[in-house]
Write a structure and sequence with these properties.
It is flat, with a radius of gyration of 47 Å. It is of the alpha+beta class. Helix 10 crosses helix 12, helix 25 packs parallel to helix 29 and helix 38 crosses helix 40. The strands form eleven sheets. It has a six-stranded antiparallel sheet with strand order 22-21-23-24-25-28. It has a three-stranded antiparallel sheet with strand order 3-2-4. Strands 17-16-20 form a three-stranded antiparallel sheet. The chain starts with a helix and ends in a 5-residue tail after the last strand.
């Protein structure tokens, strides 16, 4: 039916019917829609269809919007459509919605359609940066992913899952059983719900079937219209984006349709894939000009893309039969060179034009024609196909991608879309190559392809029906062909080989990545991989592709100049080999696991060898590699090696059946061996002129992600070659490649023609180490997967303790995800727990945060430590040393070996039988000659030999003994006479028998200058011995090179005769010595040693004793029977030699006998005479050293004792507490002043007026006190919308409310004396305790200012670090010049009465503060006061109503003292029970701070009228007169904060203070405090309680102790206050104020003590600091009594039976009842008007709990899920970097420009408001905590760790994280103690940008 309507429409526009449109527009849209729906529902709906068609023509005309877009050129033609382009489009969309809904409401329509959604699949599509989950336990495909909702709804407990941030975007696989196991589905998608969903009613979606084809066609027309080919220079993104913005609403509309569920999707699928519709609407035939024009634009776009439309005349079909095969017709490169044609597609040319690469000409290959059709022909048959075409053309706009993917849950669509995608594959590649935004585009491509190709069933179907594999391989080949260059390997001029150019953007930017990733993805499906491995044509093409990478990025060693420009192309090369070659290889290998797959391996090996043969031919390779060049990239060798390994290991193939002939093996080994030699050269610094990048390559080659695709296959291939080639040839090749042949001579001097002397030693070490690795590595020669995993893990753990994640990263995993050993898999965890112990993270306070680490178990060190594996796997050489150091430490600790051990010898896994030949290397004469020579040279101390060389030589001998080819019969061996060894050094090839063979004379070639020459000439003159020796043939001549040449020649001759003409001349010229070399002559050395005798002599040499070796079996015959003796398993060289000799004796009786004989001869000293003098010298040296050491010891001891005595004297001076109280009788006490050391100039002396000394201090504003709360219940971080934190109950808020309440009703200046501020933004002063002269400090700051080094602090702000302890500081607090003596005078008790003292105090306060004279000291005091003020913000200093009033400063100054005392109390845990001089005591600067504050406060004298002291100590007669005349009264004394009064009184006194006066002030204030407590208590009581107490107390009023009895006082207070209105009007608020419990005397006493304690604590601290008295320690319950007696409130602390009563501390200076009634009167007069407020002010909350950070949830996921999608309350967006404040729970945008105010970003702003400059934020997306301190910030670390005790910064691993309570404690501790600046080291400026 839809088709019929479309056909009617396609007949071109109807004859104009003017009345129709008018009537249509007249009716509203809904009515029209309803009318049309009715018309179409009739059986004969021709008329309805035509009417609808005409309407859609009108509404969806493609001309209007784009005319506007095209800049209005065609605006006239469009009839000047009313409104802007936007208006017309919105109109069109409105129409479509109405029509779809058929007259109903659109929303109802959506709901109706959704009801028919069979939601079996989730299919939610997301874009980059979305947070999704992956569960490896549930996934079938490695790419499986779930949206957060489905993940949390499913059950994944105990699974191996992680959260990840999507890189490219993806879709949720929940419900798709092809990709994941059904057990992992979430609750919504578990039910196969299609069964119970009713069938969709026909008329619901009828309109959609008519409207949607037109709508989509309209969209395609827009896309056609909007596309213009980019001009040569203008990038086209701008135009495309413009078009896409216009189309945004249309595409969004389609996207919304897909979200309506299955019913609507199936309609859309019909529309998109219906070919008839497409043909009718888009063919461009018919009269409609608009459609015609659009079709033309479509054809132009196709053509410009280098594509042809099959109907054009350019049909490729004509030549098709000629190609015949589906692969590129490039038969080897030999054939290719003849036809280096250009590929004729416009795309290729414009690539070439745009990037001329200078001299490196690109090479292009001609190709067969069949693929040309893959590359160049596209025919679109449906909307879907053309939509995808435009999607690609517009470079994958996100909206389009999302729409296309949203449709995937529809199965029919999925198949159609996948086929379409494959059909466009070549076109995608071309667009990708041209794109400027290739990164974004790659991500979008993979976003689509991973959804299609992860499904095995689908991939198989497309492979069969659409030639998917052919297309992919061809497209990849084409892609790489665009950047080929001629290879310069081997034969630069004539090479026919081409390789990719790694400098090209295609490789550098990884542009090929999406295509390769798709290829790897489809190869992971068995059915697809099988097809690939069976198709010979494909394999040939693929090997062809791989050979493009063979030999890329060639390095040539710079011999003269340092290279000017270090190219970084090697990154690209390694990435390309890993991704484009190795990963597909691992994918294929994973399907060759069983015997049945032998045929596949044989195919691969066959084509691989063919490709290798072609490669050798192409580079003209004969037998010698070109010198001084190396490439690390041999993918063909590695394919061959890995398939061989698989064949033997899993498929039981016979190795020889897949090996080539000897000549090919010889060629195969050359390049991998060249790499091994080059590695040694690079590490010997022979390539230093090539820059750092060459080291980078050497490291990458062995690095964990690359090693099992690079070095492992290379070594395996060499092992295979070694097991099949002649061993003498192989060994000599090695030494020749490593350029150390010339070193292997018995002569003490030699000439090396190819190597500088300084490199010889390390190259020799390299050669021997390589040999050891080659012979002892078993990775591919018989180890099982679990054994390999274990060996890898042990090697990594031995180098360093590792975290779990770094281990996962370092263990080379098989790059293909389906390989079985996946990280986190069962085997990984079980092996880890078998070899390692977990060390939980520890916290050193102030230290670095540690992570949970794994460390090797003791038995692993003992039995499994394998130095060979460690050497193979180390990227940095220092790691080998690190492993050895750890091994040494283990041996020392466990008492196994005290000295410096040598690497232990480890038993190897048995060899697989196929590789038995490898052991022949150990039993060949060449190796034995080398070993013998080296042992001899080491013994004779020739130059250039190290311990490492000896170690490796012994290792090789031991390997040989372990792997000897069976017992030789002793009898036969004993016959060996001098006649036998005629031609060569050793009689046979068995090491066991060769060890005992004595070598008498050796003929060597030496320079004429060598010492041997002279000696020999003397010998020859004395008798003609030389000649006779030569004749007898005993002098051995040996040349490695010649031997090897001979062998090679034989093999070559066997193979081909013409090759040998090439070989000779080339080799001779290369190795000829340079002319300047001195002449070589022949000399004959007398040796007379065997390997055994050399070993025994070496034993003597190493142990430094003669005859140190004694055969152990002579004492204990048992040793020969059970040879495995633990004593020999760890130790140094001596142990190693003993172990070897024992093994040699075990292997043959002859050896045993010979060892015994050698030991019997008392050996003369081994080395020649001249050595002994040297030894003597060393002995002398030793003695001299010993003596020097003793002298040194003596000096040090003397020094230490001096230092000690100095320290003792210094300490005495520093602590005045220890002084003896002086007798008053002494007339003139000796004045001793405090002495300070300046840490800059080092001088000591007192602080004086002229040259004051100061303490190094850090001033910082702090709001920690303001965060105290009164509840013990900790506040939690909100993790749901309901939980909110309100700051009403914080200390800061309560104090603020109190102050503003007082300011409302009382005189401002009086209010400012009644409270303290500084709860928020108070200034905290801390010191490191070091002092310096203030002038020294100034010059120090000057030098810092001129220092250009970047510091972590800002010198301009006065910041510096203490010159001694480097603690951060920003000011200097001057020390007041004072003598210790004063302290003692002021401390002594006087006998004045309290009344006299009160008068003294008043008088002293009344004296105006003398303005200090202008001394340096007073200037410094002023400047530090300024610093203190500037430390905090203005809003935290100014509380007065009149700005700039002196009362403000006054309030601020005594509050600074309060802040510091309160904070010290918090640091002590909130009470003083611990007593003692606290840890802060030594470092406290309160004394000095007090002096500074007092000095400044004395400048403001309080008018004696208003001094609260009078109100406290005098009765004022006429109370009434005062009240009347003031507009605002003063604050009643009972509303005053007593602690503030204390500080005011003390700071107003002249300093230093008398102890008596202090005690007097405290006594007076305590009476006030006590009464305040009683008043508060009385307000809290109920009416009945009050009357009871009133009577009880009244009875006892006249007893003698009445003034010290709380009952009496309470009753008096109640009766006084009852006169006023305080207790009235309680009916309203009964519940709020009154506590329901009845008060017992005990509870009242407890309440009063708790009320007074805070004051007593602060006062005791103050006394401690001012007078240096210790604080006594006590239990919590007796704290009150102890502090009271310490302060002198109690005459003595008496221990009595009856309980302690707080009232006994009262000491009234004036009659108690009078003064109390005076105080109560003030309250009464205030409550006359304001009862409620009066009551509120009386109840003070004095028991604050300690400050805490918010409590965090156990699991990080709860925080993450709530906050990472949460919108910011300020800008209502979801922040890119959300953060949350851990102090108050505020949610902020980190770095968000959206919330910036006056150039401050939100976090910085919040840190100022919430913490006065200190902010602690948890970064939601990173799980890390960031600290802001003023203008600096630092990353603190994370308090959430995973199950292995590790942080997961940036949530990269996405494993579940749990709170680490200890870490959080440390963070909180640093916050409370204000030590962020000292403990965290890495600070940087944030420039207000956080």
């Amino acid at each position: 039916m839809a088709a019929a309507a479309a056909a009617a429409a396609a007949g071109g526009p109807q004859p104009p019917q003017p009345e129709l449109p008018a009537s249509v527009l007249a009716l509203d849209k809904a009515a029209t829609a309803a009318h049309l729906k009715a018309a179409l529902s009739r059986p004969d709906n021709r008329a309805g269809a035509e009417e609808l068609q005409a309407l859609l023509e009108r509404v969806l005309s493609a001309e209007r919007p784009l005319a506007a877009a095209a800049g209005g050129e065609e605006a006239a033609a469009a009839g000047g459509g009313g409104g802007g382009p936007g208006a017309a489009e919105e109109e069109a969309l409105e129409w479509c919605k109405c029509l779809l809904a058929g007259g109903g409401g659109y929303d109802e329509f959506c709901a109706a359609v959704r009801a028919y959604d069979p939601a079996a699949l989730c299919g939610l599509v997301w874009t980059a940066n979305f947070v999704a989950y992956r569960c490896r336990t549930c996934g079938i495909s490695p790419c499986m992913s779930l949206c957060a909702e489905c993940f949390h709804q499913g059950d994944h407990t105990g699974h191996d899952f992680n959260m990840f941030r999507s890189q490219a975007g993806g879709a949720c696989d929940c419900g798709d059983s092809n990709v994941m196991r059904e057990s992992g589905f979430c609750k919504r998608h578990q039910l196969k719900s299609s069964s119970n969903i009713p069938c969709v009613p026909k008329d619901l979606l009828m309109m959609s079937e008519f409207v949607l084809p037109r709508f989509i066609f309209c969209l395609i027309q827009y896309l056609r219209e909007g596309y213009n080919e980019p001009a040569a220079d203008v990038p086209l993104e701008k135009d495309l984006n413009k078009v896409l913005q216009l189309l945004e609403p249309q595409i969004s509309f389609l996207e919304d349709l897909t979200k309506m569920g299955g019913a609507m999707r199936s309609v859309l699928t019909q529309v998109l894939t219906n070919q008839q519709n497409y043909k009718d609407l888009t063919s461009g035939l018919g009269e409609n000009a608009c459609a015609k024009k659009s079709h033309e634009k479509y054809l132009i776009a196709l053509k410009s893309s280098g594509l042809t439309y099959p109907e054009d005349k350019l049909v490729y079909g004509m030549q098709e039969p000629s190609a015949g095969t589906s692969t590129l017709a490039v038969q080897g490169f030999a054939g290719a060179t003849g036809t280096l044609g250009q590929v004729d597609s416009s795309d290729e040319e414009d690539q070439d034009g745009s990037q001329g690469l200078g001299k490196r000409k690109r090479v292009k290959l001609s190709s067969g024609t069949k693929d040309q059709s893959i590359m160049d022909v596209l025919k679109h048959k449906s909307f879907l196909e053309e939509l995808l075409f435009w999607t690609i053309k517009y470079e994958f706009p996100q909206k389009m991608v999302t729409f296309l993917l949203n449709m995937l849950p529809d199965q029919e669509y999925k198949v159609a879309f996948t086929k379409t995608f494959v059909q466009h594959y070549a076109f995608i590649m071309k667009t990708l190559k041209k794109s400027h935004e290739s990164d974004t585009m790659s991500n979008r491509i993979v976003h689509i392809s991973v959804q299609l190709f992860s499904n095995e069933e689908l991939a198989r179907q497309v492979t069969e029906e659409c030639q998917l594999l052919d297309i992919m391989v061809t497209v990849l080949l084409y892609m790489m062909e665009s950047c080929l260059i001629k290879s310069e390997l081997q034969d630069e001029e004539n090479s026919l080989h081409v390789v990719v150019n790694c400098g090209e953007a295609l490789l550098k930017n990884n542009t090929y990545w999406p295509l390769v990733s798709d290829f790897i993805n489809i190869l992971s499906h068995q059915s697809v991989a099988k097809r690939f491995l069976e198709d010979h044509g494909l394999l040939v093409t693929w090997m062809n592709f791989v050979s493009f990478f063979q030999g890329m990025n060639l390095n040539k060693r710079e011999l003269n100049e340092h290279v000017e420009f270090e190219s970084q192309t090697y990154y690209a090369a390694f990435a390309a080999e890993l991704e484009a070659c190795a990963q597909p290889m691992w994918g294929l290998l994973s399907h060759c696991k069983v015997r049945e797959t032998q045929e596949y391996t044989q195919n691969v090996v066959r084509y691989c060898l063919e490709a290798l043969q072609d490669w050798f031919d192409a580079i003209n390779f004969v037998d010698e590699p070109a010198p001084n060049q190396v490439t690390f990239h041999l993918p063909l060798h590695r394919y061959y090696a890995m398939f061989l390994s698989k064949a033997v290991k899993c498929q039981e193939l016979d190795l020889d059946s897949v090996l080539p002939d000897q000549e090919m093996l010889m060629k195969l080994m050359i390049h991998p061996l060249q790499i091994q030699a080059s590695l040694a050269e690079i590490h010997s610094n022979m390539w230093v002129r090539n820059g750092l990048q060459i080291k980078g390559q050497a490291m990458t080659y062995v690095q964990s992600h690359f090693c099992n695709s690079m070095i492992d296959p290379d070594i395996y291939l060499l092992q295979v070659c070694a097991s099949r080639l002649d061993p003498d040839y192989f060994i000599s090749s090695i030494f020749e490649r490593f350029k150390v042949v010339d070193l292997l001579t018995m002569a003490s001097q030699h000439q090396n023609t190819v190597l500088d002397a300084e490199h010889e030693r390390s190259m020799l070490e390299g050669a021997l180490t390589f040999l050891v690795i080659l012979l002892s590595l078993r990775l591919h020669l018989g180890m099982s997967d679990d054994e390999i995993l274990r060996a890898e893990m042990v090697a990594q753990l031995c180098m360093n303790d590792r975290t779990h994640s770094s281990l996962l990263d370092l263990i080379p995993e098989n790059p293909n995800p389906k390989s079985g050993i996946i990280p986190g898999s069962y085997s990984f965890e079980s092996v880890l727990s078998a070899v390692a112990d977990f060390k939980a993270p520890v916290f050193e306070p102030g230290g670095s945060m540690q992570q949970g680490m794994y460390t090797p178990k003791a038995e692993v060190w003992d039995q499994e430590f394998d130095p060979v594996m460690v050497i193979l796997r180390t990227v940095y050489r220092r790691d080998v040393q690190s492993a050895m150091d750890r091994y040494t430490a283990f041996l020392k600790q466990s008492g196994k070996f005290p000295g410096n051990p040598w690497p232990p010898y480890k038993k190897r896994t048995p060899l697989h039988p196929s590789y038995k030949g490898l052991m022949r290397l150990l039993h060949c004469k060449t190796l034995h000659i080398v070993l013998f020579t080296l042992l001899y040279k080491i013994l004779m101390d020739h130059q250039n030999l190290s311990e490492h060389v000896l170690c490796m030589v012994l290792y090789l001998i031991e390997l040989g003994l372990e792997n000897s080819p069976g017992e030789e019969s002793d009898e036969e061996a004993s016959v060996v006479g001098p006649e036998r060894c005629h031609d060569s050094w050793f009689p046979g090839s068995n090491l066991v028998s060769n060890m005992r063979h004595f070598i008498n004379y050796v003929r060597v070639r030496v320079p004429e200058t060598a010492p041997e020459v002279k000696r020999d000439s003397l010998a020859s003159t004395s008798s003609d011995s030389l000649g006779s020796l030569q004749n007898s043939g005993t002098a051995q001549v040996f040349s490695l090179v010649a031997e090897r040449r001979k062998k090679f020649q034989e093999i070559i001759n066997r193979c081909s005769s013409e090759a040998n003409q090439v070989v000779r001349p080339k080799t001779s010229s290369k190795w000829s010595a340079p002319g300047s070399v001195p002449q070589l002559t022949t000399a004959i050395l007398e040796i007379k040693e065997s390997i055994l005798s050399l070993l025994i002599k070496l034993h003597h040499k190493l142990s430094g004793k003669q005859n140190s070796y004694y055969p152990p079996w002579l004492d204990d015959i048992e040793i020969l029977i059970q040879p495995e003796i633990p004593k020999y398993s760890h130790g140094d060289g001596i142990t190693a030699i003993e172990r070897i000799l024992l093994k040699a004796a075990l292997q043959s009786r002859m050896n045993k006998r010979i060892i015994e004989e050698i030991c019997r001869k008392v050996t003369p000293p081994v080395p020649p005479k001249k050595i002994t003098t040297a030894e003597k010298k060393t002995l002398d040296k030793e003695e001299r050293r010993q003596k020097a050491r003793e002298r040194q010891q003596k000096l040090l001891a003397e020094f230490a004792s001096r230092q000690k005595s100095f320290m003792e004297t210094a300490m005495d001076v520093d602590s005045p507490e220890t002084d003896i109280p002086m007798e008053i009788t002494t007339a003139e006490p000796q004045v001793s002043e405090t002495v300070y050391d300046c840490v800059i100039c080092g001088q000591s002396g007192p602080s004086s007026e002229d040259r004051p000394t100061g303490l190094v201090v850090l001033l910082q504003a702090s709001s920690v006190l303001g965060q105290c709360r009164d509840s013990t219940e900790p506040k939690k971080l909100p993790i749901t919308e309901e939980e909110q934190i309100y700051p009403w109950d914080t200390c800061a808020a309560v104090h603020d409310v109190r102050l503003s309440l007082l300011q409302r009703y009382f005189k401002d200046s009086s209010c400012l004396l009644a409270v303290s501020i500084g709860w928020e933004g108070g200034v905290y002063v801390q010191t490191c305790g070091h002092t310096l002269h203030i002038d020294c400090h100034k010059s120090y700051m000057e030098s810092l200012r001129n220092d250009q080094v970047l510091q972590g602090f800002s010198v301009d702000k006065g910041e510096f670090t203490c010159p001694l302890c480097r603690q951060f500081a920003n000011s200097v607090l001057p020390c007041y010049p004072g003598s210790n003596v004063e302290n003692n005078l002021w401390k002594r008790a006087s006998n004045k009465s309290i009344q006299d003292l009160i008068k003294d105090v008043e008088e002293l306060q009344g004296r105006p503060g003398a303005f200090p004279s202008e001394t340096n000291l007073s200037k410094e005091m002023e400047s530090v006061m300024k610093d203190i003020k500037n430390t905090t913000q203005k809003k935290y200093r100014d509380y007065s109503k009149t700005p700039g009033s002196p009362d403000n400063d006054f309030l601020f100054m005594y509050s600074v003292a309060r802040t510091n005392l309160e904070l010290e109390l918090v640091h002590r845990g909130g009470n003083l029970c611990s007593g003692g001089a606290s840890t802060a005591g030594k470092r406290s600067c309160l004394n000095q701070l007090f002096h500074v504050l007092a000095l400044h406060m004395r400048l403001y004298s309080i008018d004696s009228e208003y001094n609260p002291w009078r109100k406290l100590t005098q009765l004022i007669e006429e109370m009434n007169s005062q009240l009347g005349n003031e507009e605002q009264p003063e604050v009643p004394i009972l509303y005053h904060d007593v602690t503030s009064l204390l500080l005011i009184q003390i700071l107003m006194m002249p300093q230093p203070l008398h102890k008596d006066h202090f005690t007097c002030i405290v006594k007076v204030l305590f009476t006030l405090l006590y009464i305040q407590g009683l008043v508060a208590l009385s307000v809290k009581c109920s009416e009945e309680d009050r009357s009871t107490w009133k009577h009880v107390g009244a009875l006892r009023k006249n007893t003698c102790e009445a003034e010290k009895s709380y009952e009496v006082l309470l009753s008096f207070v109640i009766s006084e206050l009852s006169k006023g209105k305080l207790y009235h009007e309680e009916g309203t608020q009964e519940g709020a104020m009154v506590s329901p419990i009845a008060w017992s005397p005990e509870s009242m006493e407890k309440y009063l003590q708790d009320f007074c304690l805070p004051f007593l604590r602060i006062t005791s601290l103050l006394q401690h600091h001012l007078f240096g008295e210790d604080l006594p320690a006590c239990q919590e319950e007796e704290e009150f009594a102890v502090l009271a007696s310490c302060l002198g409130l109690l005459p003595t602390f008496y221990q009595t039976e009856h309980p302690f009563i707080s009232a006994s501390c009262l000491d009234w200076s004036v009659p108690a009842f009078d003064i109390i009634s005076q105080w109560c009167f003030e309250i009464n007069s205030f409550t006359e008007q304001h009862t409620e407020q009066g009551k509120a002010l009386l109840i003070q909350e004095s028991r604050w709990k300690l400050p805490h950070l918010l409590q965090l949830p156990e699991n990080y996921n709860t925080i993450f899920q709530y906050y990472h999608r949460k919108t910011c309350s300020v800008c209502t967006k979801v922040p890119k970097d959300p953060a949350v404040c851990l102090v108050c729970g505020t949610f902020v945008c980190l770095k968000g420009l959206c919330c910036k105010q006056q150039s401050f970003c939100e976090c910085v702003l919040h840190s100022q408001n919430c913490g006065a400059g200190t902010g602690i934020f948890l970064l939601i997306n990173a799980s890390v905590i960031i600290i802001i301190r003023g203008h600096r910030f630092c990353l603190w670390g994370s308090v959430y760790l995973d199950a292995h005790g590790e942080e997961d910064r940036d949530l990269r691993r996405g494993k579940p994280l749990y709170i680490c309570k200890e870490r959080y404690k440390v963070l909180e501790q640093q916050w409370i103690s204000h030590t962020f600046d000292h403990i965290n080291k890495r600070w940087g400026p944030h420039y207000n940008g956080l």
